[in-house]
Write the structure tokens for this entry.
Amino acid sequence: MKKIINTSKAPAPIGPYNQAVLKGAMLFTSGQIALHPETGELITSTIEAETEQVMENMKAVLAEANMTFEHVLKTSIFISDMGNFAAINEVYARYFNEATAPARETVEVANLPKYVNVEIAMIASL
């Protein structure tokens, strides 16, 4: 049976989905964007600040499932401009141990929800 994971420490879903679903030991997260969970404000002043907010939102979702970034097996990063890759990667790297970092894909897309610059989703396991 699947368990729905939602936390008030990350932005609430705005459609027919949940922040994450836990099935057995596997956690599948929805993509997170840089919405501040308390104010609902988009954090887009810099690509670094935007990426940090995304990662903090993801950290909150993982914590609600009693996990950390060490439990992440795979990430999917969607960016609107590949020119931002280095800056996004620099912030992203702060959240992982390079020796045990997850598998990852980074894809440039034409657009993202609310016209943000980065969205990240993860798969994790206990």
The helical segments are 47-64, 85-93. Residues 63 and 115 are 27 Å apart (CA to CA). Strands lie at 2-5, 20-23, 26-29, 72-79, 103-108, 118-125. The chain has a mean pLDDT of 97.
